[in-house]
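Record pair follows.
FIRST:
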Amino acid sequence: MANQIPNRRDFNKSLLATGATLAAGASPLREAFARPARGGRLRVALHVQSAQDTLDPAKFAQTSEYARGFMLYNGLTRIDEAGEAVPELAESFEANGDVTEWYFKLRKGVTFQDGKTFDAEDAVYSIMRHKDPKVASASKGLVEDIVDVTADGKDGVRIKLSAPNADIPVLLGTFGFLIVKNGTTDFSTAVGTGPFRLKEFKPGVRTVVTRNENYFKSGRPYLDEIEYFGIADPVARLNALIAGDIHMMSDLRPNALDEAKKAPGIEVFSTRCPRFVQFAMMCDRAPTNNPDFRLAVKNLLDRERIVNQILKGYGVVANDHFVMPQSPVYNSSLPQRGVDIDKAKFHLKKAGMENASIELRVSEAVQNSIEMGLLLQREAARAGLTINLKREPSDGYWSNIWMKRPFHAVQWNPRPTESIMATLVWKSDAKWNDTQFKDVRLDQLINTARGTVDLAKRKELFWEIEKIIYEQGGNAIPAFVSYIDAISSKVKGLSPIPTGNLGGFNFADSVWLEN
């Protein structure tokens, strides 16, 4: 076994090494020398919640589930601030020379919240259940190349692959691969190894968790209890923070930045990342199945204005694919799209949709989609296209609108590597292929890139992946949107991790409340 993948940090940093910042007075250096305080009840309000929320990691699909999952469970690895996989329930990990087999040495002395000792069989079950069609795992597409997972004694796990895959340690640090007990099929409650025990779970209402006194990380968690719920309205969410009713909130809207920065005892917590908002045009139904219509829409996005005016600079211009300009595999040869009314008119005419009218679904559930939709509506009118915005309620948006309506707004949280993101969203058979764009060549490229460690070869593959999506895909992606959250100045220990809000959703065992 090799001890380390060659150039692993360079290979893995492409999506996440984009920078993270704390604003309004927070000081990570100061906190590094601060002594964590124990005790207290943390109240957290997220921008989304759903009556369909689950406690089964294999079926996690939205922000509210990700953060809850990290309170109750652990992964074999954990994603750090640099986007690297670091040991968690695994003590160490290594691969063979061609990255077709991985070995994870497990941490000893870890127990589940019901007292059962964690061992290799739990890890084997937790990974292999994603391959079972009956489980209907949202991450099934990510385990296609896993041939077998076997226990090597009580404290070792071997993963054999059908093709090279250098992403395995990173993959196992994501929320879908949190470890459950061997044989678990009932997820009406949660029994994990995580820092907190489940006290109350009312989907769409709230979750309450209490400290796991037998947590394997000495001295952690610091908090006694966390209450976790959704406040869909962004104004109400910020008002609750300013009033002291909550300690942390996700998705501070850019138009409220000044108010938050002026409020006493409030800190803005921003993380630059490859999260993106897109207008999904489904390729399997009319009228968005017309490729010329899709190209028309892509030429009607005022990307600079979206970043500068709507996002207030907390974002980066995108070019209708999911790779940021800062990435080593970014295709710089593709012309940067902007507003081109003549091109839009040309494609609308070619599509037979001159003076057409279409409905675009937007919602507060997709941050800034209403403002972006209004801007798109204005530019479309100049080209003769009428876009009727239909504002959908946040509650039920992901179950009633997403992947069901021809033209709708979507927000994608980043994944640790481009390969993971491509596999989840752009593979033909991906459960979350929300535009239903299917291309055999694209599938082949994604599969090959996943096992390509050499950066030059990986870049060549991704240049072609991006070109196909740019030219043919159903994704109109105007901008990458930084995470902007807000916290009470009493909250300490929160680190920016560019895989999600509030420290990559994984704050439960690291934050504390200053007395």
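SECOND:
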Amino acid sequence: MSAEATNPGNPGAAGRRRGRRRLELRGLRRIGRAALLGPAPRDGLPHALEHVAKVHRHHHPEADLDILTKAYLLAECSHRGQLRKSGEPYITHPLAVTLILAELGAETTTLTASLLHDTVEDTEVTLDQVQDLFGDEVCYLVDGVTKLEKVDYGAAAEPETFRKMLVATGNDVRVMSIKLADRLHNMRTLGVMRPEKQARIAKVTRDVLIPLAERLGVQALKAELEDLVFAILHPEEYATTQALVMEYATRPDPLAALAERMRTVLAEAGIGAEVLLRRRHLVSVHRVRLARRELTGADLGRLLVLVAEDADCYAVLGELHTCFTPVVSEFKDFIATPKFNLYQSLHTAVAGESGEIAETLIRTHQMHRVAEAGVIALGNPYAPTDDADAPEGERADPTRPGWLSRLLEWQRTTPDPDTFWTSLRDDLAQDREITVFCADAAPEGAAGPPGAAGGAIGLPAGASCVDAAYERHGEGAHCCIGARVNGRLATLATVLRDGDSLQLLMAPDSAAGPSPEWLDHARTPAARLAIARWLAGSREAGARPAHTGEPPALPAPPADRRAADEDRPAAVPAAPGSVLAVADLPDATVRLAGCCTPVPPDSVTGFAVRGGMVTVHRALCPAVARMAATGRQPVGVRWRGADQGGHGCRVTLLAEAFSRPHLLADLTEVIAAQGAAVVSAAVEPPHEQRVRHTYTLHLPNAAGLPSLMRAMRQVPGVFDVLRAGRTRSAAVARS
């Protein structure tokens, strides 16, 4: 914005503030009250505004152009005498920014603000005057993109300006739309600046503005910004890629023939579709070249098929996969599962007769508008509407996307500008988002963003359970000690995938806290900042309990005991005369292995040992795999009788729980209520607020084991009950 404005008569920031005070006293006399409030020029529009108005009317035929005329006149008068670094009148910049937004379909309020976006920053016009003349919305947008002055903020001016813009964007995404268009025009004309300044602006554009354009879905701006940054920061690679594209431009285009064949196929199928050839921008070509090492003519573009309705997209897909050879691995459905930035399309790739591979995008015309312009194509997302004719299946604008909510949440707790600036760049560098479904409800009184309890949460790709905990519970995540991912116990370091089901295990003791290792697992700034604050506070307050978030591991028996345990009969034999298993060896004595205490109707196998005895193990027992690996031959065994659950048996269970008073009493009470008898019990010393109880139980009926384990899991504080000898990999196979 003002970085390219020059005005020899401007006394600088201090003089500008004095000038504003004088303007407030004299009103609008210096900038032409009659021109602002009087009638429009005789031809209806200022000549400089005609092209903008024509483009705007193409997207919005009923648009009121009077307010645009009024805004242009104010901008032209207030910037009069100012020049850009290129020597052009400064008014050419807001006009160019407005044209960029008009071409993307921005509505009138956005265009009005874009014409005025530099007036408060670079001229004597005040926000109060903008509000009086154009209303609250335009005033808010202009204020949102107005820079903070270096004279007041020093080196923190740029980070704090972006913080201000992000906060304003949280209430109105049109603020960032104007900023992106403003940066695009400045990047187009950056050649007049010193190389070091070009590089500095290009790096900020790469690290902050381009990721924001991606998140707002404004692909048209993002693609051009990427190419402009590429030319400045990587001139050699840019020149190589550009030469490669120009070389292929002299050759026959294999995609053109394939596009014509597609048109014929779809027309014969009775599908109304438009097939277009879309050239890749230079950065995209460069990425393809790096990924594939060698380019073909088909790699320089993609085919785009536009249809009227969602159902037509799938009809086109069916025809293309029938009449061409599809590359199955390239298929993606972003219509059923849209991207977090509003993007919807079907992606596929098909092979032509000569073997060329054509990447193909299939979308409706409305999807295409949103894919190109993102939130800009949605007009004013905050205006009430009852449009019954709105096309079904089109995704509505999220005025507060998940990524933006996260940015706004952690920036409030990051007063230091340098930390904010570093965290912002790190967060924006994460270019993909996943959705995780939380199966548990947030604990009562837990901190966290509104609506965090239950349901789906959005996280950047690569996020761990630590990140999910802080996204869900805020500072309350300090008490998290573990998680279940898709039903299995997992460490807090576990990286989550799109669509995972997550249950966070929270310690009841609020004195719990994170360990320093959590910082290695946290990817989101919100999690890292919260953990760092807690650790800093714990150091100031002295040693405090911390935990690693590792799930409690089952202790392995000592090496000298393991072999004996594998073939050892149950420590407490079944009731006399009630051996439940029968071996396929004649006259063999059958014993139940003590390492896994199998009971009907477990799947079991046996191994012969000395003295003609056969020990029976659960099929999932680790001892089975170890003995099979040494060449031991299994012996067939089966449970006696047709009713495999009708016999008494003994079983060893491990109950893993948070340490609390009366836990042993509560567990034994539940065990007794289920009709089981405790033969022996052992309680390990608590470790990091967790404890393990081991019970050997006699059940009158083996069929009652599942209900007993369910009842034990329902005891407050218990987060798992396992059979002895059960491995972690089999955790999901509940007994």
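COMMENT: The longest helix spans residues 195-215.
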